[in-house]
Amino acid sequence: MGIQWRESLAIGVEEIDNQHKELLLRFDRLLNACQGGRGIEELKKLQAFLDEYVHTHFNDEEALQRKYHYPGYEAHHAEHLYFINKINILKAETEQEGVSTHHVIETNNMLLKWLLNHISKVDMELGAFLKSATS
């Protein structure tokens, strides 16, 4: 049931692609842990990773967008803020209520939607723009 990196997800910026690969690896660990009945334990590890990841990754992406005057910067930035907010809400819930199966499912759904909608569409558009801007 896991999820793996596919080259079709590459946007052509090595640093960003490597960060996306790491996110998918962590997501895959969560999915595999869920199959083994260890989703709650793995979610705690994933949340700690995401705290750092979103700031580093989004800052790196947005720095490139500003450097090359990406016309979709504002919308892209807004999506990043939305994702950070979703992560913070889930984290706050787990801190207040304890980690439950519900939180594991919510995180799985959130990451899957992020993968399908943001990385494979929005980041692809950014990659195409960066390729043309740096050629």
Q: Can you walk me through this structure?
A:
It is a single chain. With 135 residues, this protein is mainly alpha-helical. The chain has a single domain, classed as Hemerythrin-like (Four Helix Bundle (Hemerythrin (Met), subunit A)). Helices cover 81% and strands 0% of the residues. It has four helices and no strands. The N and C termini lie far apart (39 Å).
Q: What is the level 1 CATH name?
A: Mainly Alpha
> Which stretches are poorly predicted, pLDDT < 50 over at least 5 residues?
none
Number of domains: 1
Radius of gyration: 15 Å
Sheet/helix structural class: mainly alpha
State the helicity in percent bands.
Answer: over 70%
CATH fold field value: Four Helix Bundle (Hemerythrin (Met), subunit A)
What gap, in angstroms, lies between the N and C termini?
A: 39 Å
The tally of strands reads 0
Amount of beta strand: under 5%
